[in-house]
Amino acid sequence: MSEENAILFSDLALSEPLLRAIEELGYEAPSPIQAKSIPPLLEGRDVLGMAQTGTGKTGAFSLPLLSRIDLNLRAPQLLVLAPTRELAIQVAEAMQAYARHLPDFHVLPIYGGQAMEPQLRGLKRGVHVVVGTPGRIQDHLKRGTLKLNQLQAVVLDEADEMLRMGFIDDVDEILSKTPASRQVALFSATMPEQIRRIAQRHLRSPVEISIKASTSTVQTITQRYWPVSGVHKLDALTRILEVENFDAVIIFVRTKVATTELAEKLEARGYAAAALNGDMNQALREKAIDRLKRGSLDIVIATDVAARGIDVARVSHVINYDIPLDTESYVHRIGRTGRAGRSGEAILFVAPREKRMLSAIERATGQPITPMRLPSQSDIADKRSADFKNQITEAMESQELDFFETLIEQYQTEHDVGLAEIAAALAYMAQKDRPLLPDEIPETPSHAFSERPRRDDNRRDEPRQRRNDDIPRVKYRIEIGRDQGVAPKNIVGALANEAGIDSKYIGAIRIFDQYSTVDLPEGMPNEVFNQLKRLHVLGVPLNISEAGPNDGDESSHRPPSRKFGPRGGNDGFGGKPRRPKQRY
After folding, report:
1. Among the CATH numbers 2.60.40.10, 3.40.50.150, 3.80.30.20, 3.40.50.300, which is that of 221-375?
2. According to its UniProt record, which protein family does this protein belong to (predicted)?
3. CA–CA distance, 533 with 544 (Å, rounded to integer)
4. Whose CB among 30, 273, 389, 441 lies 3.0–4.6 Å from 299's, allowing a Cys bridge?
């Protein structure tokens, strides 16, 4: 499938609620595995797919199979088998995101190493989808706590990994206990003989799909990544643009809304930037590309679909402001630079929860992506000073300056000052709107939004030991507690992995029967709050809100508190907008 004639998700027969969720998540075009898998799965066909991690497999089976779920039937209709607890959680969370507009939808991840009680409660309440590891699925089948009689479809994700881990006999036995009429989708990076035998035994006339991950990244492109940490992404981006010697840049984001928002913010900071997205008509799109070619535009902020076919020689840099959703998109994105044998630079922003995709990209392309250090205040000052010196040299070499030399000599005589003082004053006048020495850049005490968590807290009820007590915190209430089997480590893991909050900046956590409280750094960016609002722990939505005066009191068992937003606030706090006290 060429870039120019690639189909869009809107061309597929997915249900309207799923298409709406896809658009909100920033998806525009399916990856190759999705484009080939969704139509037959929607038709009820079995699918045998060969595809690597990072090619978009989760969406390839989730979207069509969720389209066929009967929401009125609170019984497992879709079973996904995954080799590891991490993958099971990841698949369950992806499905929850896709199903955000499916009313009363429930997905439950079940895996070993987690207490059985919350899994039993979840199954008893009723779920539409179960995602689990083979061993724990077998445990529930033997207990009789998992019923498969209403099952419509089974997915084997990363089947070769389940073989390597010794689960293949469990997989075979589980499949033999499913209804004969169920649909099966099997995905595997390789197809060893044992996997092929499973497919022959349990799949009926499957559609076979093979996707080879792109490895055609241009050798002349230097690839680097910045691990997203305490600095706000926009501040990090402008620092990078300050220091990099670029001619033209394409910045990739996931959503059409983000293209216009980021373009406006960069324009406000003095850059010649414009958006390029699928909502623009062809004439506007061509005008933007023509401006990029002519040099009247230096930065384009684009989505994957809108950037298709761009071939502009002066594009020296591609910046992945939002990490792509599959490896194929990454290869297409960075291919916009390094054209026709030229050198190019590709920079990727990677949040802690996105490290898995970074690894997938490196495996798929066969090339390492090296970490980069964010430019400091000193780096920016050095770059601005060097640019200013070059401007002086260029003016001396290319302009007739006799009149100005005479004017300066007259001023020196009239005011009895040195040439260095006059030159310094002129330099200030020339650069006062863009000082050569920039304002101090806060290196943020908010490493709070940075590294991977250290999952070292196994206590259930006692507050976690506070670290970095000089950081002001706010107490929040989350609607999961002892009744759901939650432990502090579960909350810490979700906050650190999914919201990028360093675990050492997460304050006291207290677990109660029906809810918990957690102290988080004050003044967090809105994007972090938006991420928190979408978090699930043990398959339960956190529904985070600011704690009330009685939350944290052992005698308090009030109903769930207000959620973010209903009081009319526009910043995700659910009340009067608050401005961060520090810059991230």
Report:
1. 3.40.50.300
2. Belongs to the DEAD box helicase family. DeaD/CsdA subfamily.
3. 6
4. 273
